[in-house]
Design goal:
Length: 327
């Protein structure tokens, strides 16, 4: 298929069929264990948590930990954030050497810490610098380079800089894919998603476009695909405590129906997720699981009481006990 994720290794490319249902990057959430769970439910492509290029430059052990992935997660895209082109080059080379299938650049994060450091969505205010960063990475590595952007950000003099301005600026760069979060910087993470601008990006960019924002149900996934004509979608908050949304979306797109998950199935998924996290991160993995466990404990009778216990767990055995797998 012409221009289908250009540059992606043949093996990985052959596995990707449109529409691509991807796990969008989420810091503190899309770690190796969660990515594996999402793969189990049919995620076609997974993004890592954002990884700081400065952290890699200064050899931070914690930052290097974020780069770990298993074969099962492929094709995997590692997302980088920062603001200095030279550090992006160094980081991109490290990522390529590790065997990742692609590098994504974060131009959408509004978190104050990232924003203040000049990275994330703040870069959208300086399209020349965005261009320099992307070009530097594209020149430095052979694996595909993609970007994640927001629908718009207001400049300091009140002018709106949109996703369309962004793609116009970078049109001569060999970018393989763009994920567009259809909310402005000012709108944050909630509320309506601008499907029109995602549609316009799709019409004006020759690589792959993935639509993102507000996809919490299979119906919303179909709406995003139908209205915007994108090549795929990125699921984020919709899969918190609900990684089976990947399976449901695929079922729905095929047959117009999907099955709901009930408690006996949910607890098995949650336990497998916890087991993986424990295997990969020991005690820290269990502590990080607390928020996931709280998300899993939703939407069934007794969920609230269960949640109160799950957010305090200290070890894997305790989780098994609370779910009733052992006495
Ligand atoms: C907790 C959290 C962490 C996130 N971390 C990242 C990140 O590391 N990189 C990134 O590009 N976007 C990040 N995002 C944004 C999501 O990828 C996505 O664009 C956003 O949540 C909108 O999609 P949704 O409405 O389906 O959640 C994060 C979002 C959340 C909620």
């Amino acid at each position: 298929m012409k221009n289908f994720w250009p540059g992606l290794a043949a093996e990985a490319r052959s596995k990707l069929k449109k529409p691509i249902i991807a796990l969008a990057p989420m810091a503190g959430i899309t770690d190796s264990a969660f990515r594996q769970i999402c793969k189990d439910f049919g995620a076609d492509l997974v993004y890592s948590e954002m990884v700081c290029v400065d952290g890699l430059h200064y050899k931070s052990k914690k930052t290097f930990e974020l780069l770990k992935f298993s074969k099962k997660e492929k094709p995997i895209v590692i997302q980088l954030f920062g603001s200095k082109p030279q550090l992006f080059i160094e980081a991109a080379k490290i990522v390529e050497k590790l065997g990742a299938d692609g590098i994504d650049i974060n131009f959408g994060c509004p978190a104050p810490k990232i924003y203040k450091s000049g990275g994330g969505v703040k870069l959208m205010r300086d399209l020349d610098l965005c261009y320099q960063i992307i070009k530097a990475i594209c020149d430095a590595v052979k694996i595909p380079v993609s970007v994640k952007i927001r629908s718009s950000i207001n400049s300091l003099d009140g002018k709106k800089i949109t996703a369309l301005d962004f793609i116009k600026k970078i049109k001569d760069l060999p970018i393989s894919a763009i994920m567009v979060h259809g909310r402005s910087y000012e709108k944050g993470f909630g509320g309506p998603v601008d499907l029109e601008i995602i549609k316009k990006v799709k019409e004006n960019f020759s690589g792959l476009v993935l639509g993102n924002g507000g996809i919490t149900t299979p119906e919303k996934a179909r709406e995003m695909l139908d209205i915007t004509g994108v090549d795929g979608i990125g699921l984020a908050q919709g899969v918190l405590g609900k990684p089976w949304l990947f399976e449901q979306v695929k079922e729905y797109l095929k047959s117009g129906k999907y099955k709901e998950y009930i408690f006996p199935q949910i607890k098995k998924v949650a336990l497998k997720h916890a087991q993986l996290n424990f295997k990969l991160k020991s005690k820290q993995g269990i502590l990080e699981m607390r928020k996931h466990l709280a998300w899993y404990a939703h939407g069934f009778q007794g969920a609230s009481a269960l949640r109160q216990k799950l957010i305090r767990v200290e070890n894997f055995r305790e989780i098994k006990k609370i779910f009733g797998f052992i006495k």
